[in-house]
Each structure stands twice: as C-alpha cells, then as structure tokens.
Amino acid sequence: MSLTMSGDFKAVLSFSFASVALLASPGPATVALAASGASFGVRQSLKFYFGIVLGLVPPIMIVATGLFVAIRTIPFMPSILFAVSVAYILYLAVKIATAAPLQESTQGASPGFPSGFILGLTNVKAYAVFAALFGGFTLGISDQWDVAIKAAICMGVIVIFDFLWLAMGSSLRRFFTEPVLNRLVNIALAALMVAMVAWSVWES
Predict the structure, then answer these.
(1) Is 73 helix (H, G, I), strand (E, B) or coil?
(2) Prediction pTM value
(3) CA atoms within 13 A on the CB side of 34
C-alpha cells in the first residue's frame, strides 16, 4: 500500500485537517478536560484523560464497521445514549464547580478513569463526527486500509489535542491561586460545560 502525492496523499491530508477541525474543537469532552486540568492539574487528571481517550475507541470501531447505522435504528437507543452523556457531563460539571481551592485539593479528587471512559463512550458528538469523517472522505485505497488509516488519524488527533486541552486548563491554575478566584474559574468552566449540554439539547 502506497500513497501518491497527486491523489492519495492529498486525500489523507484533507482528512487529517478535517479531523483536527472537528475533533479538536470545543465539545463536552474537551471542555471537561480543560475544566479538570484547571481544577485538579494535569497529574491528577491523567486517569480522566486516558479514560476519555480509550472511551472513544469503541465509537470509532462502531462507526467504522457500520454498526452505528444499525444502532440508530434500535428504538430509544440514540435517546438513551444522549441522556447518559448529558447526565455524566452535568455530574462532572458539579464535581468541578465544587472542587476545593488549590491549596485544599487532595490527591484522587479529580474525575477518574471510569468517568472519562463513560464520557468518551457516550459522547454523542463523537459518534456524529466519526460518522461524518468516515462517510464523507474517500482515501482512494483499499477499504481495509481506508478504515485503518482513518482510525489511526482520528486517534492521533484525539491523543494530542485532548492532552493540549487538559494542559491548557492546567495552565490557568497559576493565575488563580487565590481561593475566591479559583472558585470563580471552576464555576465558569462548569457553566461552560453546562452550556455545551444545553447547546447539544437544542441542536438535537
């Protein structure tokens, strides 16, 4: 399998740019990572980060294999998935909004791996984005390589840019060591997560 500069490579490049634009943009998971980073720091949020990353593997596989289309035909399944996703985001928003000030924070207080995994697994935006990416682009190669390369690019974007969101949130901590300001930042980030939920509900 080889990629030509005139055709296949350009298709892969276009797919990569589209993946960054769609997967790295603000969404429930990326905002939650930024909020967790701001509230608990990178180190304490790593389990949450890895949970989200690994939680997005099944959605990629479900979309890539065509199971997503079948799942959407099951009565109430899309609504159940959406409800679980919204509930988890609201839970995380409350946890972040009520996080202790920096000097009072304790190890293990951040959302853990299970919360991240479930958020990734039930992230409705991710399913829609993967469906658009896998269905809207043709790389001009065999079907097996097409799916494999698309999946690899998507995972690469997720691993890199989700961590950047986490690091960006963590970088805010040094500016808000004052407890009152720290609380305001936590509440503001939690409110942004709730706004993302409200937007998703409105769009649905």
Answers:
(1) coil
(2) 0.75
(3) 22
Cα 109 from Cα 20, distance rounded (Å): 31
pLDDT at 121 over 80: yes
Lowest mean pLDDT among 56-65, 73-82, 94-103: 94-103
Amino acid making up residue 194: V
Neighbours of 50 (CB within 10 A): 18
Q: Which residue type sits at 131? A: A
Please tell me the predicted confidence (pLDDT) of residue 175.
Answer: 59
The 10 Å Cβ neighbour count of residue 113 is 16
Of residues 143 and 16, which shows the higher confidence score?
Answer: 16
Is 29 within 8 Å of 119 (Cβ atoms)?
yes
CA 96/CA 92 separation, integer angstroms: 6
CA 72: distance to chain centroid?
Answer: 21
